[in-house]
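Dear H.,

Thanks for agreeing to be a second pair of eyes. The structure we're designing against is below in token form, covering all 287 positions.
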């Protein structure tokens, strides 16, 4: 009887230990989708059934950035060396849209590359080493995408990103390249840079560690506010792509009024105007 009780106690202990330490998750099914979002607690790659993107030729006014990023991505997808890229500059000028559009375009141009897009949130950067472990084991090639990246003076997340850009002991996986977008060229506010320089014992070293993070991106692609002609060209491109025929004088007048009420011109504002216009004209939009 005592032996049976002891055996039962041991089984209960074993069951309790198994609940406390569940078996490791199965490796992600990379073949299940073209794009994923990285989540933590627990770590997992969530497949994205359909990436929300626009056609590459609808991105007007950013020709140089478009061509440079496309060339970099194509050579990476075809197995050649490529640079990490920082897309920085004005809000609403198509930085994140360009990354997604380039991914979709390259998937069409080089389907044999099996290029995947993996989005990681800024707050999940401390887990990036674990993500790299999963991606390194795959035969696919990955665009690791971090949108709206920036850091404050007491933010330590940049150290995790720096380790990836520098490669660390293992080195950045050959099948991974990082694209990040930011409104800030040096990924931290200018007033914070100037404040730390003015108050530090060694001003030249005070912010070097953080500012140097942007230097670790091989490509810097700047996005600047658009002029009125570019703004109207964006809208003309949307109208042509969706077959929306509006008298030119009316379209121009309404577009200028729209941007005046918003107080800004950008690709985002152009798309918002076109969305309103298409709705009023009874045209459905499907990307």
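And this is the sequence the design step returned. I haven't edited it by hand at all.
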């Amino acid at each position: 009887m005592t032996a049976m009780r002891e055996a039962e106690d041991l089984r209960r202990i074993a069951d309790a230990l198994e609940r406390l330490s569940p078996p490791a998750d199965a490796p992600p099914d990379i073949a299940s989708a073209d794009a994923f979002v990285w989540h933590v607690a627990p770590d997992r790659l969530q497949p994205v059934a359909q990436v929300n993107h626009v056609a590459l030729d609808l991105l007007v006014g950013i020709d140089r950035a478009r061509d440079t990023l496309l060339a970099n991505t194509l050579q990476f997808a075809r197995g050649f060396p490529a640079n990490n890229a920082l897309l920085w500059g004005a809000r609403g000028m198509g930085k994140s849209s360009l990354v997604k559009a380039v991914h979709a375009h390259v998937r069409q141009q080089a389907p044999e590359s099996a290029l995947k897009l993996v989005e990681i949130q800024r707050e999940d950067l401390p887990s990036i080493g674990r993500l790299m472990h999963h991606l390194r084991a795959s035969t696919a090639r990955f665009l690791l995408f971090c949108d709206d990246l920036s850091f404050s003076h007491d933010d330590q997340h940049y150290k995790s990103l720096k380790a990836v850009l520098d490669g660390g002991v293992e080195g950045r996986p050959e099948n991974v390249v990082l694209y990040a977008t930011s409104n800030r060229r040096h990924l931290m506010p200018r007033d914070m840079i100037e404040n730390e320089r003015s108050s530090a014992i060694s001003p030249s070293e005070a912010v070097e560690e953080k500012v140097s993070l942007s230097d670790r991106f091989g490509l810097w692609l700047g996005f600047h506010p658009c002029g009125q002609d570019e703004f109207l060209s964006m809208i003309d491109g949307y109208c042509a792509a969706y077959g929306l025929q509006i008298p030119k004088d009316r379209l121009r007048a309404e577009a200028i009024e729209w941007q005046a009420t918003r107080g800004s011109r950008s690709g985002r504002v152009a798309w918002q105007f076109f969305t309103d216009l298409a709705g009023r004209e009874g045209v459905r939009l499907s990307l």
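Two observations from my side: The domain at 30-223 is CATH 3.40.50.300 (Rossmann fold). The beta strands are 35-39, 44-48, 85-89, 115-119, 141-146, 176-182, 219-223.

Warmly,
E.
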